[in-house]
UniProtKB/TrEMBL annotation:
InterPro entries registered for this protein in UniProt: PspA_VIPP1
Protein name: Phage shock protein A
Transmembrane regions: none
Species of provenance: Cerasibacillus quisquiliarum
Family: Belongs to the PspA/Vipp/IM30 family.
PANTHER family reported for this sequence: MEMBRANE-ASSOCIATED PROTEIN VIPP1, CHLOROPLASTIC, PHAGE SHOCK PROTEIN A
Compositionally skewed regions (Basic and acidic residues) per UniProt: 136-148
Region (Disordered): 136-166
Length: 221
């Protein structure tokens, strides 16, 4: 039983470090370690409960044996009162056997009680360590997630300001300038290609529009 708790201390002190050294994802390994440690604590609780049950059994046996010592004493006194010395001797002899059992049971009970106290204290210590490690795990998990996020953002920012991105924007800018130049050129060509008739047609159209507006205003439509 003591070896069990000693093993747990060893796990907490060294095995976690070894697991993390080999881990690709420390957060997942920490979660797995906490699950394993939780299972070990459950197993320890069962062992402690079994030890306490053994202590209670010994306590009950000791109580019953002490009661038999008292009973045989009373029976011996009763036999003496009745003048039956032989029966008194037998009662006292049996009382002696029970007294020997009381001595042995007392030693066993005291040892079991002491062991139970030690194991309960060790179990409490394990639970405290588990709680502390859970808090540390949560802190480490948060730090790991934060570091991953910062790394991802930094890589994204680096790629945005990189040569490939810059060259891509420069190419797009050149393409837009080319489109604008082509549009201006086509407009210039369109103006240059207009004939004298086109210009007079446009002028007449403007005069006709102005005349129609004037008639509407004077109610002469």
């Amino acid at each position: 039983m003591f070896k069990f708790f000693k093993r747990m201390k060893t796990v907490v002190a060294s095995e976690l470090n070894a697991m993390l050294d080999k881990a690709e994802d420390p957060v997942k390994m920490l979660d797995q370690f906490m699950r394993d440690m939780g299972e070990d604590i459950k197993d320890a609780e069962k062992r402690v409960a079994k030890q306490i049950a053994n202590e209670k059994i010994l306590a009950k046996k000791l109580e019953n044996t002490k009661a038999m010592v008292e009973k045989r004493q009373q029976q011996a006194e009763q036999a003496v009162d009745a003048g039956n010395d032989d029966l008194a001797r037998r009662a006292l002899a049996d009382k002696k056997e029970y007294e020997n059992q009381v001595t042995l049971l007392t030693e066993s009970y005291e040892k079991a009680k002491a062991d139970s106290e030690v194991l309960k204290n060790k179990l409490s210590e394990m639970k405290r360590e588990y709680q502390q490690m859970r808090l540390k795990k949560d802190s480490l998990k948060a730090r790991a997630e934060s570091a991953k996020t910062r790394t991802k953002i930094n890589r994204t920012m680096s790629s945005i300001g990189g040569d490939d991105s810059r060259l891509g924007f420069e190419r797009m800018e050149e393409k837009v300038l080319q489109y604008e130049a082509e549009a201006e050129t086509t407009e210039d060509l369109s103006i240059q290609s207009r004939t004298l008739d086109d210009e007079f047609a446009e002028l007449n159209s403007e005069v006709d529009d102005e005349l129609a507006a004037l008639k509407r205003k004077m109610g002469k439509e």
